TrEMBL record:
Coiled-coil annotated residue ranges, if any: none
GO molecular function term, any single one: 5S rRNA binding
Organism domain of life: Bacteria
InterPro entries named in the record: Ribosomal_L18 (IPR057268), Ribosomal_uL18_bac-type (IPR004389), Ribosomal_uL18_bac/plant/anim (IPR005484)
Subunit field text: Part of the 50S ribosomal subunit; part of the 5S rRNA/L5/L18/L25 subcomplex. Contacts the 5S and 23S rRNAs.
Record keywords: Ribonucleoprotein, Ribosomal protein, RNA-binding, rRNA-binding
Family: Belongs to the universal ribosomal protein uL18 family.
UniProt-recorded name of the protein: Large ribosomal subunit protein uL18
Protein task: This is one of the proteins that bind and probably mediate the attachment of the 5S RNA into the large ribosomal subunit, where it forms part of the central protuberance.
Gene Ontology process terms (BP): translation
Organism: Telmatocola sphagniphila
Alphabetical list of Pfam families matching this protein: Ribosomal_L18p
């Protein structure tokens, strides 16, 4: 197995480790986060019905560079505002294969400050 394939395999195992404990429901959706080198994406997902209830990201024409903590904080605030507009106050945080550190931590803390509880 080459290095890239091993790295991908480890990432999938870490993601499965987190996901087996976290499931989104209509009352308590799952806050899923994906981060790339340039952008960060977050969405509230109802796994029982397979629906995305709210989302926010740095990708778009009017958005600045999204690969830093400041941009992640803005995404967290935007997601919390979208969630409270739809009447969602509680969610389950799904960090995926990423450590709770840096941009991920900034997004989560901003969402908490915006009114989401997890």
């Amino acid at each position: 197995m080459d290095a890239q394939r091993r790295k991908q395999h480890r990432s999938i195992r870490r993601k499965q480790h987190v996901r087996k404990k976290v499931q989104g429901t209509p009352e308590r959706p799952r806050l899923s986060v994906f981060r790339s080198a340039k952008h960060i994406y977050a969405q509230l997902i109802d796994d029982l019905n397979g629906l995305t209830l709210a989302s926010a990201s740095t990708a778009g024409k009017s958005k600045p560079y999204g690969g830093n903590v400041k941009a992640a904080t803005e995404v967290g605030k935007a997601l919390a505002a979208a969630a409270t507009a739809k009447g969602i106050q509680v969610c389950a945080f799904d960090r995926g294969p990423y450590r709770y550190h840096g941009r991920l931590k900034a997004l989560a803390e901003a969402a908490r400050e915006g009114g989401l509880k997890f």
